[in-house]
Design a protein that fits this description.
228 residues; globular; mainly alpha; 86% helix; single chain
Length: 228
C-alpha cells in the first residue's frame, strides 16, 4: 500500500502542477471551480504527504482529511453545474434547469448523509463519498446527453465532463471495494479499490490538463485571430 501511495503522489502532484499552471494562464476564466478544486487538491495532497511521512498522525487529522474531501466533492458538483450552465447557454430554460438541479443535488446529499450515518466516522464518510461520487456521475451524464444530443463542438467542455465522469465512476467503484474489503478483511479487494481510484484520478487530471491547454489556445485565437 505504501508503494502504491507513493506512486500515486509521484504522478498526481506533477499533473496537478501542470493543471494549475494551465489554469493560471487563463483557463481559470472558463473553469473557475476547477481552478479552486485544483488549488485545494494540491494543498491537501502536500499536507497529506507531510502528515503521513512525519510519523504519528495527530488526532485532528481524520476530521481535517474528511472536511477537505467533502469540500473537494462540493467543488466538483459546482464544476458539473457550471458545465451544465455552459452547455445550455443558448437555452431559455437554463436558469430553471440549474435551479432544479441544485435543489436535487442538495436533497440527494442530505439523504445520503443521513442514510449512511454511523458512529465510526471513517465508515460513514467512506459510504457517503461513495454515494456522492455516484450522484456526481449521474449528474455528469446529463451534461453528456446535452452535448451529444446537440452535437456540441465545445471540445474543452467535452473533455472536462469526460474526465470528471471517469473520476466519479472510478471513485464510486473504489469506495465500494474498500467498504467490502473492510467488512470481509480482504487485502486483494482493498488493493483493487485503491488501484482503481489512483488510475481513474490520474487519467482525469491528464484529461483536464489537456482540456485547459486546448481552452487557452482557443481563447488566444479568439482574442487575436491574426496571431499577432
Amino acid at each position: 500500500m505504501k508503494y502504491l501511495q507513493w506512486l500515486s503522489w509521484s504522478v498526481s502532484l506533477p499533473l496537478q502542477g501542470l493543471l494549475l499552471h494551465a489554469l493560471a494562464r487563463g483557463g481559470f476564466r472558463s473553469f473557475p471551480f476547477l481552478f479552486l478544486y485544483t488549488i485545494l487538491l494540491f494543498l491537501s495532497t502536500v499536507a497529506n504527504i507531510a502528515a503521513r511521512e512525519s510519523g504519528r498522525l495527530p488526532a485532528e487529522w481524520q476530521t481535517a482529511y474528511w472536511v477537505a474531501e467533502l469540500v473537494l466533492q462540493g467543488l466538483l458538483y459546482c464544476l458539473v453545474l457550471s458545465l451544465v450552465r455552459r452547455a445550455l447557454r443558448a437555452s431559455p430554460q437554463r436558469r430553471r434547469i440549474l435551479l432544479s438541479l441544485t435543489l436535487v443535488v442538495v436533497l440527494f446529499c442530505a439523504v445520503a448523509c443521513l442514510a449512511t450515518r454511523t458512529e465510526r466516522i471513517n465508515a460513514w464518510m467512506t459510504d457517503f463519498v461513495k454515494y456522492v461520487s455516484f450522484g456526481g456521475a449521474l449528474l455528469n451524464l446529463m451534461v453528456w446527453s446535452v452535448l451529444v444530443g446537440k452535437r456540441h463542438q465545445d471540445r474543452s467542455l467535452l473533455m472536462i465532463s469526460g474526465g470528471y465522469g471517469l473520476q466519479s465512476a472510478g471513485e464510486a467503484i473504489s469506495q465500494s471495494l474498500r467498504a467490502l474489503a473492510v467488512r470481509s478483511r480482504s487485502m486483494p479487494l482493498l488493493t483493487a479499490g485503491n488501484l482503481i481510484g489512483v488510475l481513474t484520478h490520474t487519467l482525469c487530471l491528464w484529461i483536464w490538463w489537456r482540456a485547459v491547454v486546448h481552452e487557452n489556445a482557443r481563447r488566444a485565437r479568439h482574442e487575436d485571430p491574426a496571431g499577432l
